[in-house]
Amino acid sequence: MTRIVAGTAGGRALRVPRTGTRPTSERVREALFSRLEHAGAVDGARVLDLFAGSGALGLEAASRGARSVVLVEVARAAAELCRRNAREVGLAAVTEVVPAKVATYLAGEPGEPFDLVLLDPPYDLAPEEVAAALDRLAQGWLAPGATVVLEAARRAPATTWPEPLEDDGERRYGDTTLRFASVPLDAGAPTVKDMPVPPGGPR
């Protein structure tokens, strides 16, 4: 059984698609959110859950105090299950479900940037598709100080994080690896080389 680990909906069961998804285990979710909460990355955050499956990761964030959560899932049956799960655990008011490919969603114009992004792509998804999603995220979808978490198979190729994301390390749990990155709080701030040259040239 899959369930919400903690928060306002802690202990509530989640429905899981019979096929086509690989829900993150309760043990891994508990470890992940323990780290995220310790870093202050969940409470009040605007969260994006890509390759959402049953919505377990995004709904866990909502249960623990996220301000809003967007679940993106291409399989329509799974997307409908995300909506049902959100209703049944009492989190529908802060949850939006988008039935679309991740690439299609990220090809749109970013709105309000996200503070926390959770990616749990199928383990057999081509590495270049994962890299493309990360590249798109880096183009206006992330707020300063945002955290990005990628769940990958233990033997998956190393992740190259696009700027402005900085590698924050990884944690392994059996065959699952969680890879962390973040955007510096001052990302987008002008640097010395961006400053206009004063009249008369450099001084």
Automatic annotation (TrEMBL):
SUPFAM superfamilies: S-adenosyl-L-methionine-dependent methyltransferases. The keyword Transit peptide does not apply. Its EC number is 2.1.1.171. GO terms for molecular function: 16S rRNA (guanine(966)-N(2))-methyltransferase activity. Pfam families: Cons_hypoth95. Signal peptide: none annotated. It comes from the Bacteria. Gene3D superfamilies: Vaccinia Virus protein VP39. Keywords: Methyltransferase, Transferase. NCBIfam families: 16S rRNA (guanine(966)-N(2))-methyltransferase RsmD. This is 16S rRNA (Guanine(966)-N(2))-methyltransferase RsmD. It comes from Georgenia faecalis.
